[in-house]
């Protein structure tokens, strides 16, 4: 029990420091640090800043002013700088912050320490016309929860998701500050009516109910759930974000049927796989990704990031591993799978291309660049969208994901069991029997009972044959362009870093 208690204390201290580091790294002009210091006694502030109480009082005492001069409001018993509306006010606020020189550890102490008994500093005479500042409400503020959430979730959420959640959090906080006409907003003061009105405003702005529910409301719920887990909201209390029926399961089913990607028709597939496809391909992915999508059911994000080492032969069966190792990422755990390479792909020269690509890098498409949030499919997705327009295959339910739908429908029509289809294309199969009591099928079974059922007799692949070295010049050129671009970006970042210093 003692060991467990000590571990809890270490984890809590680490959490405080992570949050404090996020706060300390913010722009001093943002005003967020003032909201944290709002509830701190000046004696405690003096202790963590390593200054005397008189020095802190002198630092925070506003200069003599005239009736026509704007003041920085000073809250007795705590620090609360407000009315920062001019350059002069801002300069003074920044001066105070620099003089205090609070480290992340000091800020963490302010967050973690028990709220001290308020000791009033030396009284400051206020102009007779100025009203007495209101006493601030107590409790963890929703503004404090934003960087704290980021610190807690930085290793648990995908970089893109964390970035998007941060945007949703800041938008909600700005809306709440405007609604309540103040900056210091304890998270417990937010009401169910606040959430309901915010949802209505989002819907009125034109956002879809699905977007509001699955993105905005999900992000806000995360803040309140974290607040409850750390004790800022009592355990067992119903959260104000709970049970807002914006987008129900019935709505999800209707949306899935009306907005999900549809499989390609026979005529559309004939347009895609016409013999001229290979001769006109300007990049290797333009040719191979549609072929792989049709015969694996893989997502464009999965196929674009494949490593050469993911393609191996096991007991005479060539296979491709879809995984999230190294610099790769997947949508869900069920996406991890090992599947056989379809015989048609091998007949079309896929393994010859793999050998050619291996001479230019570690990736199947070595010229691709990883995007800001770890995606390798930004370039390939854009090129495919343009190619679809060129082929005049249009519509909101048509895209690269249509290959995935096409493969799944083909397997279903050829009487492949649902559980086998799910394993092959990387879908969750959430029955108790398959999730707990069964093991994944082996490669020979998947080749014989699943991959071989991906048959398209109306398509002729005999004229889509890749010859070894056919993309050699293209690969060399594209990889060279990519290397130069990456070098320029590196130089830009180094220059920016030097300027920052």
Kindly state the percentage of residues in helix.
40-55%
| Chain-averaged pLDDT | 81
Low-confidence stretches: 65-86, 114-122, 129-137
In N-to-C order, the SSE pattern is: HHHHHHHHHHHHHHHEEEHHHHHHHH
Strand ordering within the main sheet: 1-2-3
Count of helical regions: 23
What portion of the residues fall into strands of 2 or more residues? under 5%
In whole angstroms, the N-to-C terminal distance is 48 Å
The radius of gyration is: 30 Å
Structural commentary:
- Helices cover 53% and strands 3% of the residues.
- With 501 residues, it is an all-alpha fold.
- Strands 1-2-3 form a three-stranded antiparallel beta sheet.
- β1 and β2 (317-322) form a beta hairpin.
- α7 (142-153) runs antiparallel to α8.
- The longest helix is centred in the last third of the chain and has 29 residues, at 472-500.
Brief account:
With 501 residues, the chain is mostly helical. The protein is built from 23 helices and three strands.
Secondary structure layout:
Elements: H1 2-24, H2 32-37, H3 42-49, H4 53-60, H5 87-100, H6 104-112, H7 142-153, H8 159-180, H9 192-204, H10 209-229, H11 249-259, H12 266-272, H13 276-280, H14 284-296, H15 300-304, E1 311-314, E2 317-322, E3 337-340, H16 343-347, H17 350-357, H18 378-390, H19 401-413, H20 418-425, H21 432-436, H22 443-449, H23 472-500
Antiparallel strand pairs: 1-2, 2-3
Helix pairs in contact: 1-6, 1-7, 3-4, 3-6, 7-8, 7-10, 8-10, 14-19
């Amino acid at each position: 029990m003692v060991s467990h208690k000590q571990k809890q204390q270490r984890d809590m201290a680490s959490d405080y420091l992570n949050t404090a580091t996020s706060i300390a790294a913010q722009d001093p002009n943002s005003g967020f640090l003032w909201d944290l210091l709002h509830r701190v006694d000046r004696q405690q502030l003096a202790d963590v800043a390593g200054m005397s109480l008189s020095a802190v009082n002198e630092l925070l005492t506003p200069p003599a002013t005239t009736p026509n001069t704007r003041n920085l409001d000073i809250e007795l018993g705590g620090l609360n700088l407000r009315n920062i509306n001019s350059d002069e006010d801002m300069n003074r606020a920044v001066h105070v912050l620099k003089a205090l020189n609070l480290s992340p550890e000091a800020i963490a102490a302010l967050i973690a320490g028990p709220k001290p008994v308020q000791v009033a500093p030396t009284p400051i005479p206020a102009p007779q016309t100025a009203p007495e500042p209101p006493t601030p409400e107590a409790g963890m503020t929703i503004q404090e929860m934003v960087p704290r959430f980021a610190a807690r979730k930085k290793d648990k959420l995908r970089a893109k998701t964390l970035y998007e959640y941060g945007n949703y959090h800041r938008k909600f906080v700005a809306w709440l500050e405007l609604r309540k006409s103040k900056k210091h907003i304890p998270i417990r003061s937010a009401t169910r009516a606040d959430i309901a009105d915010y949802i209505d405003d989002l819907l009125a702005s034109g956002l879809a109910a699905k977007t509001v529910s699955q993105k905005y409301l999900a992000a806000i719920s995360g803040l309140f759930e974290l607040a409850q887990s750390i004790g800022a909201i009592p355990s067992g209390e119903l959260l104000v974000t709970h049970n807002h029926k914006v987008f129900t399961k019935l709505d999800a089913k209707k949306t899935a049927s009306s907005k999900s990607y549809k499989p390609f028709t026979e005529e559309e597939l004939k347009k895609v796989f016409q013999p001229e496809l290979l001769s006109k391909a300007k990049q290797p992915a333009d040719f191979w990704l549609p072929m792989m999508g049709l015969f694996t059911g893989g997502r464009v994000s999965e196929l674009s990031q494949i490593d050469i080492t993911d393609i191996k032969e096991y007991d005479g069966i060539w296979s491709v591993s879809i995984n999230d190792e190294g610099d790769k990422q997947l949508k869900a755990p069920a996406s991890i799978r090992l599947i056989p390479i379809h015989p048609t792909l091998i007949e079309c020269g896929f393994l010859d291309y793999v050998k050619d690509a291996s001479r230019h890098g570690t990736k199947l498409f070595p010229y691709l660049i990883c995007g800001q949030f770890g995606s390798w499919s930004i370039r390939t997705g854009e090129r495919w969208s343009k190619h679809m327009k060129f082929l005049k295959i249009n519509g909101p339910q048509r895209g690269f994901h249509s290959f995935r739908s096409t493969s799944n429908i083909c397997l279903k029509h050829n009487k492949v069991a649902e559980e086998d289809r799910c394993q092959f294309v990387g879908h969750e199969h959430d029955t108790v029997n398959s999730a707990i009591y069964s093991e994944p099928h082996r490669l020979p079974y998947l080749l014989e009972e699943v991959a071989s059922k991906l048959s398209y007799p109306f398509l002729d692949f005999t004229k889509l044959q890749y010859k070894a070295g056919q993309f050699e010049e293209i690969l060399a050129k594209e990889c060279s362009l990519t290397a130069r671009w990456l070098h320029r970006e590196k130089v830009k970042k180094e220059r920016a870093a030097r300027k920052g210093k």
